[in-house]
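Why show two proteins at once? Because comparison is the fastest way to build intuition. When a single record is shown, students tend to memorize it. When two are placed side by side, the eye starts asking what differs. So, the first record is below.
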Amino acid sequence: MMQWREGVVVEEMREWPGAVEYAVRLASPDSTGEEVRALAYTGMVGRPEPGDRVVLNASALLKGLGTGGLAFVVALPDRLPEDAPDSPGHIVKARYTPQQQMFLAVDEQDSIHHDVLLDADSLEAMPVVVADLHSALPAIIAGVRLARPDARVAYVMTDGGALPLAFSRAVAGLKEAGWLQATLTVGQAFGGDHEAVSVHSGLLAARHVVGADVTVVIQGPGNVGTGTRWGYSGVAAAEALHATHVLGGTSIAALRVSGADPRPRHRGISHHSTTAYGRALLSPAIVPVLEGGGELAALVRRQAADLAEHSRADLDVVEVGTKGVLDALRQSPVKLSTMGRGLDEDVAAFVVSAVAGVCAAERVSGR
């Protein structure tokens, strides 16, 4: 259920493309003038100014959630934004919700790219790296750049986490730094450089419209998990690998690994990866692991071998060297953080993601 609050904008805290974060003083009778963080998606609600009255969705904030633990501006009731200019496109996302929006999808009839995608059916062996946590994105790209600095990288954001791409400050920073050439939002996700109806058409657009050498597919920020085997949004990684295989791409399954998570089910290879790649996945995929290293790397190799042996899919476990990987990660233009831990707190999580990027870059073919 939604929990509504009303407030007044105090000041602008920070902004990045498509989003502005504010300090808002709550105005409800039981708030005692408390200030909270609130995010406005400018394409949806306009741009609030200090002194504006705003209506907030405070549900995640009041629940104390991590990734989504802030209020969201729903409307400026006293100053509605102007209508956007008329434009082609009829693909509705966030469908049948009060804030549904209409977009021009890259694959629909009114798109200038429709003819390119009309009969497109092959990724031409393009490497596609799939992971289940949004925090893996900068590390994967760091690995790609280490092995192939000139590679064009596209990001396909699925709708398992945040729907608005503008929620991700990491994506904004990666694009600003030139590490990421294009974004594509698929399914109910929206706000990318290109919208696409499905993961399949998003992948095809990455190859044939964007000209990507490597594409990364991950849900937006805000992985949902219930502590059960199947009840987590990252299981959709298997579906992205299926799409890659069907379209003739090179499927690379990035492992979720931790050497610092206090929960035993996430130490070494997370149980989320073993479920997605061992139970849900039915098509072939490459699984990169670290070459050499210490006890944790050896544990991950053993776990990966066991995963491959018992998986329903044909998994090819490939050892990848780590020379230069740490330096590449430290050059990231955005903060590296996963489950609240940075690079120095959980090195393995980021290094394993980075070697998946190296593995992809090594498989880039000429066009």
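Second record. Ask yourself what differs from the first in the token line.
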Amino acid sequence: MIKIQISNIEEFKNDYLLKVKDDVIKRIKYLKYSVSHLIDPNNINDNEMAKAKHSTKHIIDLIRDSKISIDDLVVAKYKNTLLTYTTGFRINHIDLDPLLIFLDYLLDDTNDSLNDLLICAPENLFTKNTTLLNNYRINSEIYINILKNAFLYDSEIGIKIRQFFHEKNITNYCPYCNMTSALYSTNDETGKIADQHQLDHFFDKATHPLLSLSVFNLVPTDYNCNSANKGEIHFSDELHLNPYISGFKNDMKFVPIMDAFGEVVQAISLKLHADRNSYVWKQLIGDEDFQDLAPEHGNINVFQLYKRYNNSGILFSARKLVKKFRNVAANEQSLRRILDEIEDSPQDNYQNFRDWYEDEIMTKFHQKDFGEVIFSKLNRDVLDFVFDNYPENFHESVNNILTNSYMPEYGAE
């Protein structure tokens, strides 16, 4: 998995608020009207009824065994309908006051509460959701289902959110697999869509409705990863890795499995370099020691990376890469020419080697750039593998370059 890199994070967050905040405020207000009306049907502002009727129907339908007709909530009938449905203990057994307090909190601009929710940092999303529900005593199923009406990711607000991600195009390739496009583009002549990503809710919107519209809970991805692989799987911070927080880095590396003669790539192994009891291990493959045993846990399993990276086309490319890198490693004159193309200072050597690699392999050398080009993680891991495992001539300089490239100042996450 590749970490999503956003160059101007503050601009990104501010632009998102400009795009969706007003719509979310409107929805919260309408839900607040409904809650207020159900708490006290005798004190209803006439201007609020038409705006609140759909939210009111949603709440009554959740509380009662049978659904109410929207026709019973037209302005002329609205108050009488609510008076009818709030007598006989049909809905009075649900205390709506905590919900009203929470909605007022979100609408209070002085505390930036709604901003904090919509642009909450990815590492704080789950805690933010849990803390709000617990602090306002609205963590029961009925409250959560009522809140879905204000945070529903439907076609109305969904189109604005998708437009935002289309405009930003924050990653070229799916961060979950680095195999397929996650760009949005249209034909300049016809206006037809040429490329289009999907948006995955990292924390599913059914279980975590407060996070349905949070920008860092929305991951641009491809169809296979979002719909075919993840589907309805419930993600968590403990058992899954969020690409806004981190990529695989060196905690997982693609490693070629060679034949008995060390000449031909027979398979691609996904090697873990993390402590067995660490969060990282669980985020990669879950609680198991081996891949594919817990397909709902760990990004490697969920996104079927072992299977997908062992298809015949990728193995063919990996064989060619290993051969190319070994030829360079074995030829001191060729390697020296790459390193010393301009001057022989360490900094120049580093730049020259990176330029050679990116020109020859047509993928990115640094982790922070992996999302820009397909298969960047795989190709870079193969490069590291060759220089780690085939020490022939003049490797010390190259190994230093490879090691340094994983330092933050050179391009690590």
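One difference worth noting in the second protein: The two ends are 12 Å apart (CA to CA).
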